[in-house]
Amino acid sequence: MIQHLIPISALALVLLLSGCGAQTPMPGSQEPEGATTVETTFTVNTPIQTVMDDPAFGDYGRLLFPADDGYWSGETLGDLRLTFYSHIDPSETVEIVNTLKERALAGETIFYDIYTDEEKAADPDKEDTGLFFFRGEPGARFAVCNAGGAFAYVGAMHDSFPHALELSKQGYNAFALIYRPGAQTACEDLARAITFIFGHAEELEVDTSCYSLWGGSAGARMAAWLGTYGPAAFGGNDLPRPGAVIMQYTGLSEYSTDDPPTFVCVGDSDGIAPWRVMQARLEAMSACGIDTEFHCYPGLGHGFGLGTDTAAEGWLDLAVRFWERQM
Q1: Measuring CA to CA, which residue among 8, 188, 161, 2 is closest to residue 97?
Q2: What is the CATH number of the domain that holds 132?
Q3: Residue 165 belongs to what domain range?
Q4: Number of domains the chain contains
Q5: Sorting pLDDT into bands at 50, 70 and 90, what band is 86?
Q6: Which helix (H) or strand (E) holds 278?
């Protein structure tokens, strides 16, 4: 068995380092004097600040993008850049924010706080947490997607939102977690998120059996650690561990003989997460009788997300099939 994680936040960064349109009037119609156009569709040219400030997103629009502005850049959706990430697809970014806005305007709740107002007042860092919900079929199983960012920030727009959106298209209920940077606090937030979903399963219309945890880079470590120890080890309720863990590009080597079935994908040119380390871990887990699946894609470095238009394109479908095999 591996040693308990707590405390680990001081080592996290070292471990991880061994990505608008407007509604126009119909011809002949007239607008009241002084009226402004109402933005209905975002495009690659939409300023990021415009998305953050859109009334459809209430006071959580800012959490669509990293809370720490030292790790991202860009004025518009089309030129968004995230530290540690490659192959950011602007069309995916635009689809995500448009989908969320459409669902919000249609009356869906797309964001859930996982901490109470009292808890956030006691710890202001918890203000920058929550779950974005990409709803699938009512009663379907759920997944929690965890973006990376070296435990320094949360790169959700490239590393968890696209995954959650694609899972929802396949009928699954998918959540993207916005967590506090730091390995310990991130795991505590994931444990709290799982506890929240289980506690509100009827309201959310999700099946809690054989849920899955997904993550890239730092987010993959979160998924693996919660898979090993379970939510209770990080302050959550005493709940079942996930039925499957889906990991991308993180050089984690530790494991336990009781770890859940685990799927891994990585690029063979990743200078942060060596593919041989990931492969060796899965081979050792497989030798213990744990169901595993490993994919290494040529020419890809760190942080390729969905891998659109790369050798990794389609890996998410393979991961879904792996998860379904555990059900």
Answers
A1: 161
A2: 3.40.50.1820
A3: 108-326
A4: 1
A5: confident
A6: helix 275-287
